[in-house]
Amino acid sequence: MKLVHIYAALSEFLGKLSTSGFEPSNTLAPQSGLSFFDSVLRGIGQVMLQNNSYTGLLFLVGVFYSSLMSGLAVLLGTVASTATAMLLGTDRADVRAGLFGFNGALVAIALLYFLEPSVLVFVYVVMAAACTTVVMSALMSFLEKWGIPALTAPFVVTTVVFVLACARFGRLQSTGILPTAGLPKAATVEGVVTVASLAEGLFSGIAQVFFQGSVITGIIFAVGLLISSRAVFVAALLGSLLGALVAWVMGAAEPAISSGAFGFNCVLTAIVFSRGFFVVNSHSVLYGLLAVLVTAVVYAAMSAALEPIGMPALTAPFVLTVWLFLLASPRFSRLRSSAG
Amino acid sequence: MKLVHIYAALSEFLGKLSTSGFEPSNTLAPQSGLSFFDSVLRGIGQVMLQNNSYTGLLFLVGVFYSSLMSGLAVLLGTVASTATAMLLGTDRADVRAGLFGFNGALVAIALLYFLEPSVLVFVYVVMAAACTTVVMSALMSFLEKWGIPALTAPFVVTTVVFVLACARFGRLQSTGILPTAGLPKAATVEGVVTVASLAEGLFSGIAQVFFQGSVITGIIFAVGLLISSRAVFVAALLGSLLGALVAWVMGAAEPAISSGAFGFNCVLTAIVFSRGFFVVNSHSVLYGLLAVLVTAVVYAAMSAALEPIGMPALTAPFVLTVWLFLLASPRFSRLRSSAG
Amino acid sequence: MKLVHIYAALSEFLGKLSTSGFEPSNTLAPQSGLSFFDSVLRGIGQVMLQNNSYTGLLFLVGVFYSSLMSGLAVLLGTVASTATAMLLGTDRADVRAGLFGFNGALVAIALLYFLEPSVLVFVYVVMAAACTTVVMSALMSFLEKWGIPALTAPFVVTTVVFVLACARFGRLQSTGILPTAGLPKAATVEGVVTVASLAEGLFSGIAQVFFQGSVITGIIFAVGLLISSRAVFVAALLGSLLGALVAWVMGAAEPAISSGAFGFNCVLTAIVFSRGFFVVNSHSVLYGLLAVLVTAVVYAAMSAALEPIGMPALTAPFVLTVWLFLLASPRFSRLRSSAG
User: Fold this and answer.
1) Tens of pLDDT, residues B140-189
2) C-interface mutation test, from B169, B173, B180, B311, most C Cβ less than 10 A away
3) Which residues in chain C (171-200) have CB-CB distances under 8 A to chain B?
4) Quick one: CATH architecture of B199-340?
5) Which one of A202, B87, B302, C5 is most buried, by most CB atoms within 10 A?
6) Looking at domain B1-24+32-175, which of 1.10.468.10, 3.30.70.330, 3.40.50.1820, 1.10.3430.10 is its CATH number?
7) Chain A: partners with 3+ C-beta pairs within 8 Å
8) How do the domains of chain C map onto residue ranges?
């Protein structure tokens, strides 16, 4: 059996997967146990903007591979935020597409990553995940005037609030992973960036979208993206690579590059711009590339800006950069014409 | 005379008070001295969202009971911001309802609380109170696209700006009450919270809306709310109690709980959600409860986030939480249906 | 020849200049080399809101007089942001009016003022200038719902991001001019403010709009404004003077006053309010004056608020104050009636 046949068979298989979940997401039938489970998996897939249960399942596998606690957090958070959306009577099609799951997943991983686990913390995580549903709905109402999506902003806002509150709440103890508050100061070039650093950063950057530093997890996530769309798969790898390259050229510290810290926001920006918002022409490709490069600069800036309150940038650089580039785009006629 | 008769008589008396001020606020007759005075009292009442002159009068009495300077500040600020609104030709019905008074009242108390009084500071206070009218109008224009109210945001913005400027203006000296700028760090459980702490916090939390720490003032304010609406009275007490309870469960410092620091934002959130935005059903009650609990968390987070610039959170946690919960609410069908 | 004749001749000459550039900006003919050059000069003029090539030329002369590097930066930044706008297919009339030049000019001066020049930094500057075009378009889309202009917000946002990123990028070194991150603390009155301080501050305040501290440059800029409009010329001087006076009365440090640090934001606010947004009457003049005074207070506050991240306030105080006063204005009937 030749390689080309394997590829053809794989393509056909992937093609089927990408158009279906366990149940089609546009089914408005009464929410059964299976369709709830399907919504949860799609919610996990939506962390990287994929409305696909199989992709979500692979993301979940990838997270569990790297960390049992993070895997449980993803399930708990996605279930809590999705259930809150259903209890409050949100639009069912949005719930089915996983739009009320991904921010819950992320906030739960983040809180269990930055806070020492305890019964109180688990209650706190459920409350935070429920809040992402409120923040998501609020941002949808706010942003619909401009037709731009909320992205992971609910996760960022909710995580910052619930983690910062530790500084007043003596029964919530932060783990050593949370940065200590300090004042930003000039950087020096630290460590030597090798091809291995970049290769590691390439896959870690994808894994970091779920706060994981494992190359294997990054590869599992990449396969998850490939199931959903080849364009998205390519965009994610390219985004992660570009983020690492910008960091290298600018003289960022080697550990930040190989751990994927400069990659995960760029991965997400690249995925957004691979999803056909614009006509594909030389202008729109350059526009997307600029957005990815700028995301890496915004990441550096925000991670410095948040030092005085001891908070990481999370995916705020992705959210802000994409909002700006999407808001601006209707004014650029060259992104719409086919003669680019 | 039985207790039930006293209650009935009191109810009737309160019923009369709550439907009338010194003059009905919808009178558009030329602004007389009396109607200006009435607008000022309603403006003071609006600090807790009550369009009622008697409530405003009781609030003023409560503030004077606790601090002469704060009482004078309330009068000065409310008069300055209300007069500015009239001079610039704002909608008269809004002025009569006190909508251009409450932010002036609060900014004046805050500035005379955080800055050493001097002739220059009094001029500064009048200028700041006038600014709240501009900020209020700006926010009304901005927010009307979503139909949400400005709340006390003009007070927060104006106070932060005018107090922070001290760091550049040598002739404005801060009092020892203003927090010193620092970096937020992990909290430990401080002090033992007793029933007395919670009871004190219950009324101090209401008093803190006007920057007062007195239990008696809190009780006078509560009576003021009862005059206006029984639902609001109950909501305010419940809000203050919930704020103190969240703080206690989470391990906040005892002094912060007994002084009402965790209560005042929750009081205001609870008042908003008692005012019939939604159909009353189990979902909308739970939604309001979640909003109150979240307000306490947002308070902890914002008071930490503002440490590097040495500013208190003021009522920003109330404003941001209510904005989010109101913006989100149209998307939740269960808050509208009677079958909750 | 009497003084009155000189004045008349000058007026006539200025009148001609102010209605024409090298080419009328409403020509929609294909963009020639000359019209591109004209767009660039108008872009430089727009730094102080003047759509006038001669004004832009004088600004450029003034900058070169004070600093060769800043002069080159203005050209590089304006060309880069204007060319980006053309490449992406922005509305041509906006490009011709210089609306996509001024933020590029400012970001380039700022980056070459705060960062040690290198090949990498020049590439970085071009990228930042290109970004101002995206941010400008995004803000135009966002703000058009309220009919308010983006002003220099794209410059502020882009500069803060690209300078802050230094804290992570070891190959970007900041110059000694960039403030060190610290915690704001109470000010004391420093130095003695003399008439000379105020006179120096008057012109330096205008020069500081382009980051220059030279009195001669300030005078050249003032002549540039006079060419465009006498009202604007008077407003700019008055704005700078008021900024210095507020700072003096409040007890700001003498060096901050004589260097024009308190003036440049007030200059810009005064120019906006001299441009006929409102009917000229006693109310609108007072409204404009209040806006200028408030700008100086907001400058003090923002420069303190940004200390923990070691960033200067740039023209953010101007932008925020003008946005608030413009947003609020439709609600003030006295700003529209002729009977003020």
Assistant:
1) 999 999 999 999 999 999 999 999 999 999 999 999 888 889 999 888 88
2) B169
3) 183-190
4) Orthogonal Bundle (1.10)
5) A202
6) 1.10.3430.10
7) B, C
8) 14-24+37-170+194-335
